[in-house]
Amino acid sequence: MTALPPCPKCACEWSYEDGALLVCPECAHEWAPGEAASGDAEARVWRDANGTALADGDTVTVIKDLKIKGTSQVVKVGTKVRNIRLTDGDHDIDCRIDGIGSMGLKSEFVRKVQSD
Protein backbone atom coordinates (compact mmCIF):
# COMPACT_ATOMS: atom_id res chain seq x y z
CA MET A 1 0.00 0.00 0.00
CA THR A 2 1.41 3.39 -0.99
CA ALA A 3 1.23 6.35 1.34
CA LEU A 4 -1.04 9.10 0.05
CA PRO A 5 0.01 12.75 0.42
CA PRO A 6 -1.68 14.90 3.08
CA CYS A 7 -4.37 17.40 2.12
CA PRO A 8 -2.77 20.56 0.66
CA LYS A 9 -5.55 22.69 2.15
CA CYS A 10 -5.72 21.55 5.79
CA ALA A 11 -2.74 19.11 6.04
CA CYS A 12 -4.99 16.22 7.12
CA GLU A 13 -3.12 12.92 6.82
CA TRP A 14 -6.21 10.74 6.18
CA SER A 15 -6.71 11.50 2.48
CA TYR A 16 -8.18 8.76 0.31
CA GLU A 17 -8.57 8.00 -3.40
CA ASP A 18 -11.90 8.48 -5.16
CA GLY A 19 -11.44 7.55 -8.80
CA ALA A 20 -8.71 9.77 -10.26
CA LEU A 21 -8.88 12.30 -7.41
CA LEU A 22 -7.69 12.41 -3.83
CA VAL A 23 -10.21 13.54 -1.18
CA CYS A 24 -9.77 14.93 2.32
CA PRO A 25 -12.37 13.58 4.79
CA GLU A 26 -12.01 16.58 7.12
CA CYS A 27 -12.39 19.58 4.77
CA ALA A 28 -13.82 17.76 1.68
CA HIS A 29 -11.09 19.24 -0.55
CA GLU A 30 -10.54 17.29 -3.79
CA TRP A 31 -7.34 17.42 -5.81
CA ALA A 32 -5.43 15.50 -8.47
CA PRO A 33 -2.40 13.54 -7.22
CA GLY A 34 0.10 15.68 -9.20
CA GLU A 35 -1.50 18.86 -7.89
CA ALA A 36 -0.53 18.26 -4.26
CA ALA A 37 2.93 19.78 -4.60
CA SER A 38 1.71 23.03 -6.16
CA GLY A 39 -0.93 23.65 -3.49
CA ASP A 40 -3.09 26.73 -4.04
CA ALA A 41 -0.57 28.49 -6.30
CA GLU A 42 -3.13 28.69 -9.11
CA ALA A 43 -6.23 29.36 -7.04
CA ARG A 44 -8.91 31.08 -9.12
CA VAL A 45 -10.26 34.41 -7.94
CA TRP A 46 -13.84 35.30 -8.90
CA ARG A 47 -14.56 39.01 -9.30
CA ASP A 48 -17.82 40.96 -9.51
CA ALA A 49 -18.61 43.72 -12.04
CA ASN A 50 -16.57 46.25 -10.02
CA GLY A 51 -13.53 43.98 -9.65
CA THR A 52 -14.15 43.07 -5.99
CA ALA A 53 -13.16 39.51 -5.09
CA LEU A 54 -16.06 37.17 -4.32
CA ALA A 55 -16.11 34.25 -1.88
CA ASP A 56 -18.54 31.45 -1.03
CA GLY A 57 -21.32 32.69 1.24
CA ASP A 58 -21.18 36.33 0.07
CA THR A 59 -24.26 38.43 -0.60
CA VAL A 60 -24.49 40.06 -4.03
CA THR A 61 -26.88 42.38 -5.86
CA VAL A 62 -27.91 41.95 -9.50
CA ILE A 63 -26.90 45.02 -11.58
CA LYS A 64 -28.90 44.31 -14.75
CA ASP A 65 -32.32 42.83 -15.60
CA LEU A 66 -31.64 39.19 -16.46
CA LYS A 67 -34.14 37.21 -18.54
CA ILE A 68 -34.42 33.58 -17.50
CA LYS A 69 -34.11 31.26 -20.47
CA GLY A 70 -37.20 29.20 -21.20
CA THR A 71 -39.54 31.27 -19.04
CA SER A 72 -41.12 34.70 -19.03
CA GLN A 73 -39.55 35.53 -15.64
CA VAL A 74 -36.93 38.22 -15.13
CA VAL A 75 -34.44 38.74 -12.30
CA LYS A 76 -34.80 42.49 -11.67
CA VAL A 77 -32.03 45.01 -11.04
CA GLY A 78 -31.33 45.31 -7.31
CA THR A 79 -32.34 41.74 -6.46
CA LYS A 80 -30.28 40.69 -3.44
CA VAL A 81 -28.87 37.16 -3.55
CA ARG A 82 -27.55 35.71 -0.29
CA ASN A 83 -25.18 32.82 0.37
CA ILE A 84 -23.71 32.33 -3.11
CA ARG A 85 -21.57 29.35 -4.12
CA LEU A 86 -18.73 29.85 -6.60
CA THR A 87 -18.19 27.25 -9.33
CA ASP A 88 -16.10 26.81 -12.45
CA GLY A 89 -17.76 27.32 -15.79
CA ASP A 90 -19.62 29.93 -17.78
CA HIS A 91 -22.19 30.69 -15.06
CA ASP A 92 -19.81 30.81 -12.13
CA ILE A 93 -22.26 31.59 -9.29
CA ASP A 94 -24.79 29.03 -8.04
CA CYS A 95 -27.53 30.58 -5.94
CA ARG A 96 -31.15 30.44 -4.88
CA ILE A 97 -33.33 33.45 -5.65
CA ASP A 98 -36.61 33.95 -3.73
CA GLY A 99 -39.60 33.42 -6.00
CA ILE A 100 -37.51 31.87 -8.77
CA GLY A 101 -35.45 29.04 -7.28
CA SER A 102 -31.97 27.69 -7.92
CA MET A 103 -30.04 29.12 -10.83
CA GLY A 104 -26.62 30.07 -12.13
CA LEU A 105 -25.44 33.64 -12.57
CA LYS A 106 -22.42 35.18 -14.24
CA SER A 107 -20.20 37.16 -11.88
CA GLU A 108 -20.05 40.04 -14.39
CA PHE A 109 -23.73 40.85 -13.68
CA VAL A 110 -23.51 41.11 -9.88
CA ARG A 111 -22.01 43.51 -7.35
CA LYS A 112 -20.85 42.40 -3.91
CA VAL A 113 -22.78 43.87 -1.00
CA GLN A 114 -20.36 45.32 1.53
CA SER A 115 -21.09 44.11 5.07
CA ASP A 116 -21.00 46.71 7.84
Automatic annotation (TrEMBL):
Pfam families found in the cross-reference section: YjdM, Zn_Ribbon_YjdM
Entry coiled-coil feature ranges: none
InterPro entries referenced in this protein's UniProt entry, alphabetically: YjdM, YjdM_C, YjdM_N
Domain Protein YjdM C-terminal intervals: 47-113
Domain Protein YjdM N-terminal: 4-32
Family membership: Belongs to the YjdM family.
Listed NCBIfam families: phnA
Protein's UniProt name: Zinc ribbon domain-containing protein YjdM
Species classification: Bacteria, Pseudomonadati, Pseudomonadota, Alphaproteobacteria, Maricaulales
